[in-house]
Amino acid sequence: MAKSRNQKGKILVLEHLLQGTGESRIVTMQEILDKLLEYGITAERKSIYDDIEALREFGLDVQYKRGRPGGYYLAGEQEIAAAPESVHTKEEAGISKNAETEKKSEPVIIYKENTLDKEEIQNTEKAMKLQCDASREKEIREYFGSYGEYKLKESGYLHVTVPHIAGPKFYGWLAMMGKDVHILKPKKTAASYRDYLKTLAKEYKGV
């Protein structure tokens, strides 16, 4: 799809739409696409996913709520700090001033330092992939921090790539996540975690 002239403004429109949202007030993908068209911006769904990920990297805690309809919102129960506003942003985007009237500086989400125990990392060159429920994104980002690469899929799941990790401390954290975090690969690590759970279960056999 050819890019329309206001592509630089696409992420600003998206950011503007997310303001005022919450778990009970989401914005759907179709609403995002419709609003972009109002500004003369055409976009593919994949580019919207990339823009949402860019907003997360900037610090906005964008969550995805599954359901019918599913949609995006900004989580509010976070420690926040004011983000500086670019002096060239509106001019570069080509968006009318009316759409941005009295827009306040956007909040930046400050995540805690990662709590991953470095001793649990088995191999920094070998990747481990996890599939996570998007509702657990805050805990996941705070646990892995800069060790992780995060990608929200269209299915609503968050895929996380981290160095190869194993051991009882990591498995203990994984158990706290319940069914919300699943090891996709390596399969051997998933099997090792399964055996860890089986060993714990044996301790309560006959109770």
Describe the overall structure.
The protein is an alpha+beta fold and 207 residues long. It has two domains: 7-109, Arc Repressor Mutant, subunit A, CATH 1.10.10; 118-202, 2-Layer Sandwich (Alpha-Beta Plaits). It has seven helices and eight strands. It has helices at 10-18, 29-38, 45-58, 89-93, 137-144, 168-176, 187-202, and strands at 62-65, 71-74, 80-82, 107-109, 121-133, 149-152, 157-165, 181-185. The strands form three sheets. The chain has a four-stranded antiparallel β-sheet with strand order 6-7-5-8, covered by helices on one side. β1 and β2 form a beta hairpin. α1 packs across α3 (45-58). It is elongated. Mean pLDDT is 76; it is low at 1-5, 77-93 and 95-113. This is WCX domain-containing protein. Residues 129-201 form the WCX domain.
In short:
It is built from 7 helices and 8 strands; from the N terminus they run αααβββαββαββαβα. The chain has 207 residues and is an alpha+beta fold.
Radius of gyration: 20 Å
The coarse overall form would be elongated
Domains, number = 2
Spatial arrangement of strands, main beta sheet: 6-7-5-8
What is the CATH first-level class name of the largest domain?
A: Mainly Alpha
Based on the structure given, which CATH architecture of the largest domain is correct?
Orthogonal Bundle
Instruction: Count every beta strand, where a strand is a DSSP E run of 2 or more residues.
Output: 8
Largest sheet: 4 strands, antiparallel
Mean pLDDT: 76
Terminal CA distance reads 62 Å
Protein name: WCX domain-containing protein
Domain WCX: 129-201
Organism: Blautia obeum
InterPro entries: WCX_dom, WH_DNA-bd_sf
